[in-house]
Amino acid sequence: MNYPVIGVTTMRSKNQYGTLISSLAAAYVEALSQAGVCPLLIPNQMPLEAVDELLEGLDGVLFTGGGDLGADFFQEKDHSLIRGVERDRDQLELRLLERVVEKGKPFMGICRGQQLINVGLGGTLYADITEQVPEAEKHDYFPDWKRDYLAHTVMVEGHSQLASILGSNSSRVNILHHQAIDRLAPDLAATAHAPDGIIEAVELPDYPFGLAVQWHPEWLTAHAAMRGLFAAFAEATRQIRK
Q: Which entry of 86, 200, 203, 218 is annotated as an active-site residue?
């Protein structure tokens, strides 16, 4: 089998010895491998100037979850509830997104990945849902809930690529975020919403595969619909590879 290669963004953390490492939850790798692609982890410390060369060997990019984006990328002032910012990660992923779209390669975003895609394409974020959208439901089901806890139902736009992948206009999902899209980027279409109206998925129309979800499907691969998300992404990379 000719395996497509998908670049996967990572975060910086410390191991049990206090040593800094580039890390990623194994669930992402397992979900992609199950879909028949080869995941290639991208460290945040790589030179920005090497992004174009890196993309020559990739058939797609997955923008993963993690800490918050730096406030200066989507609003004028910092916010006390913004946490886990990695400046090198923000800069690298925004450059990656820019180049991926220019080259027309498939990409997918998960949680922080959706937020980054929206910001990178010209949108903004709520720095904290609870503070800035008081009428919103609870979205930050972490860290005291299981990662596969199905917290609420999202309503999916019937005409969307997402609906065709999931095979339904609604889906129960896990939600582990305290930020969300505020102003949608001009080129994106919102394709799923939470009951309180928070945007839960977006797509880049008329593009080979440019899709992002606010929930975490990598923890939900026991469900066929969520496996289908990774399978559709994998198939798009195979088509580009051909």
A: 218
216 is catalytic: yes
Nearest to 184 by CA among 74, 72, 71: 74
Question: Does the pLDDT at position 113 exceed 80?
Answer: yes
Could you give the CA distance from residue 36 to residue 163 in angstroms, rounded to a whole number?
22
Instruction: Give kind and range of the element (H or E) at residue 226.
Output: helix 224-241
Check: CB of residue 197 under 8 Å from CB of residue 137: no
218 flagged as catalytic: yes
Give the whole-angstrom CA distance, residue 181 versus residue 125. Answer: 4
Q: What is the pTM of this model?
A: 0.96
For residue 210, the domain's CATH number is 3.40.50.880
Residue 152 belongs to domain spanning? 5-241
Q: pLDDT of 127-152, one tens digit each?
A: 999 999 999 999 999 989 999 999 99
Identify residue 204 by its one-letter amino acid code: L
Q: How far apart are CA 150 and CA 169, in angstroms?
A: 16
Total count of domains within the chain: 1
Establish whether the linkage from the previous residue to 143 is cis, with ω within 30° of 0.
yes
Find the catalytic residue in 93, 111, 139, 200: 111
Residue 213 Cα distances to 42, 59, 173, 241, angstroms: 20, 20, 10, 24
Which tokens hold the place of 225? Answer: 């619909």
CA distance 150 to 172: 6
The residue among 152, 148, 126 whose CA lies nearest residue 139 is 152
Mean pLDDT of the chain: 94
If you search the block for the tokens 């977006």, which residue do you land on?
Answer: 202
Q: Is 76 a residue whose pLDDT tops 70?
A: no
